[in-house]
Amino acid sequence: MPDTAPMLELRDVEVRFDLKRTNLFGAALQLRAVDGVSLSLQRGQTMAVVGESGSGKTTLALAIARLIPVTTGKIRMGDVDLLGLQGESLRTHRRHMQFIFQDPYSSLNPRLRAKDIVREPLDRLSIGSVKSRNNRVQELFEQVGLRQDQLRLFPHQFSGGQRQRIGIARAIASSPSLVICDEPVSALDVGVQAQILNLLRRLQKDLNLTYLFISHDLGVVQHMCDSIAVMYMGKIVEQADPNIPIPRRCCRPCRQRTQIVETGGVAQPSLVIRRTRSICRLAVALLHAVHLWSISAGRICPI
Ligand SMILES: Nc1ncnc2c1ncn2[C@@H]1O[C@H](COP(=O)(O)OP(=O)(O)OP(=O)(O)O)[C@@H](O)[C@H]1O
Ligand SMILES: [Mg+2]
Prior knowledge:
Radius of gyration: 21 Å
CATH class of the largest domain: Alpha Beta
Shape: globular
Distance between the termini: 37 Å
CATH topology of the largest domain: Rossmann fold
Mean pLDDT: 84
Strand content: 15-25%
CATH architecture of the largest domain: 3-Layer(aba) Sandwich
Number of strands: 12
Bound molecules: adenosine-5'-triphosphate, magnesium ion
């Protein structure tokens, strides 16, 4: 794979969910959670996906990881067509692409010891011999800052930050090239957030990882990312440089505006949705212009 080729490339990706009919003779409804998303992520880089709650960030991440079906579009990872993979080829390709979940409490199996949680992907993907897997788990514990005497503990015997370290160790166990992080620090307190973010950055440097980093927190995004994609109602409405701050109002929760409901396959966003969307875009453009003017006039320093 040439180095200049993007690590991840999406073209017009769409994910629809079937909704229940309101009555027996009612039209079939679909929710278009991801709506024609195209983006490209270079090897070794971090792209943030930000957007208000319900804008489709997690759905997009799950679609890329092939954990939910994609309705239409193309997803390529290097020279592999991800949507063309099925069965065994999909299973073996999973070692190259892993997921770090938001909630370090519910994402770990409470019945397994920490060493078995981290070992699980190695077992499932049959990576290395049994002995080498045990050694690898010990090495991973060291890499993520956990002690060897914690190998045999259960998840409830760890703090939130330590649990997220277990999640990270599990994610990097199969030596993936792409790691999708779905709000990996939002359930942690600020001090622990900084430790986990620094760990992620160190691992990225040491292991040449590529991150797709979902977050609500623009401070976190600026600390971590090389580029930002702003999602709104299932679409990427803007791609930006993290050094140009995005107005915080864009990430404000507003779930009721996120639903574009289709009837019989034809998109029918209501007038309210369309108007709100263009007002938001106009506001974003205006705030950017004011911010750039303030920087150039020396009134404020860029963060
Ligand atoms: N399995 C599903 N079936 C039906 N609708 C779904 C399903 N999963 C997600 N949705 C809907 O898709 C939309 C996008 O949800 P998603 O979880 O991707 O948002 P999000 O941007 O990750 O939000 P948050 O920031 O709160 O995590 C929401 O309106 C949600 O209700
Ligand atoms: Mg989400």
